[in-house]
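Problem 12. The chain below contains 127 residues. Write out its predicted structure in token notation.
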Amino acid sequence: QVQLVESGGGLVQPGDSLRLSCTASGRTMTNNYVMAWFRQSPGKEREFVAGIKWGGGNTIYGESVKGRFAISRDKAKNTVYLQMNSLQEEDTGVYFCAADGTLILSSWRQSRMYDYWGQGTQVTVGS
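Solution.
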């Protein structure tokens, strides 16, 4: 079992930056693991934001965040980060961290493929 705990959410203004963290515990993160961020706002489906391969550090992004968000990982801390810049009101939502050890690249964007999820952290952009 893998436990994931997110932190770093909050209320910010449009144009601000925020960094989310997701720390994994319970099992050693091997190189085949994929860590990802998804987000969900009321009435909408869970949306893929970004993913990273634990071993090689390969990354992919959702179209709506390309050029503004960056995902990274710190192996020593078992932590994945999501640096969010130029935040917009449309970025508001609950951000979830997810992990899975069996995914191929074509599956990274599909939330149903991930076995492990965090509890989520709220990001609100605007007044």
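Discussion. The mean pLDDT is 95. Students who got a different answer should revisit the alignment rule from Section 12.3.
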